[in-house]
Design goal:
It is a single chain. With 241 residues, the chain is α+β, with helices and mostly antiparallel strands. It has one domain (4-232). The protein is built from eight helices and eleven strands. The protein has helices at residues 9-12, 39-42, 88-91, 139-167, 196-200, 204-213, 216-225, 229-240, and strands at 4-6, 16-17, 31-33, 48-52, 59-64, 95-101, 109-116, 122-123, 128-129, 171-179, 185-194. It has a three-stranded antiparallel β-sheet, with helices on one face. The protein has a three-stranded antiparallel β-sheet with strand order 8-2-9, with no helix packed on it. The protein is globular, with a radius of gyration of 20 Å.
């Protein structure tokens, strides 16, 4: 159960965080959210699709790790992550950015680091120390701060990016059916992808606008990432073979 508290030296000076990748530590997930500024790195390893939040109706981009819930095909039998890049949202655990009041006004808030005390990575025996003896953040914590800042900025840019591609009708729902070598079938559904026919028919002004806003490259990165689906299916095939 999640138990997030604001990170501080007084209460958490002795804490350590296990940084290895493991199913038992929560890495065996089907997908995580990603961000346009991360697409170039993500597409080198994973397919990029889009999900619709069933509660809010909002769309967000994801990096796909598996073909079914609770499955990360990039975790091998030794719990090693078999990819050259691990997305920000996978590396941020067990931390999140929380908004804390910085003054008398209730809407005057600043981002602070919070840590999930209920996360199995958090302990006092094994892993990376969060603070140095003088109370200053450790090298590891400074790295986490950079990751969380990038995520914070990514969350802000996701909203504008999604609004733009929806306005241009560039998302479409799709279903992918996969037959493995043992004859078993798997259907990937509930995801959205870039509508390439619409993308290819955008006029020069629309393309120029996307380029100016910095959205055109991420769109093409998402399209290019679909080639990674083949390697994902191959990983699944090896597990059933």
């Amino acid at each position: 159960m999640n138990n997030y508290v604001v990170l501080n030296y007084r209460d958490h000076g002795a804490l350590k965080v296990i940084t290895k990748r493991s199913k038992s530590l929560g890495d065996d997930v089907m997908h995580v959210m990603t961000f346009p500024h991360e697409f170039r790195d993500v597409q080198s390893c994973y397919p990029i699709y889009f999900k619709k939040d069933p509660e809010t109706g909002s769309f967000y981009p994801i990096a796909l790790f598996g073909l079914e819930e609770g499955q990360n095909l990039f975790l091998d039998d030794q719990d090693m992550w078999d990819a050259t890049y691990i997305p920000l949202m996978s590396r941020r655990h067990p931390f999140l950015i929380a908004m804390q009041s910085s003054g008398d006004k209730s809407d005057d808030k600043k981002p602070v680091i919070s840590i999930d005390m209920g996360n199995p990575r958090v302990n006092e025996i094994e892993g990376e120390l969060l603070f140095k003896d003088d109370g200053q953040p450790s090298t590891y914590t400074k790295q986490i701060m950079k990751i969380l800042k990038s995520i914070h900025l990514g969350n802000q840019s996701n909203s504008d990016f999604i609004s733009e591609i929806l306005e241009l009708d560039l998302l479409e729902l799709f279903t992918l059916e996969v037959t493995l070598s043992d004859g078993s079938k798997h259907a990937l559904s509930g995801f959205y992808t870039i509508k390439e026919t619409t993308l290819n028919n955008l006029n020069k002004d629309q393309l120029a606008s996307l380029q100016k806003k910095g959205y055109l490259l991420p769109i093409y990165m998402a399209v290019a990432s679909h080639a990674r689906m083949r390697s994902l299916v191959d990983k699944k095939d090896k597990r059933v073979g």
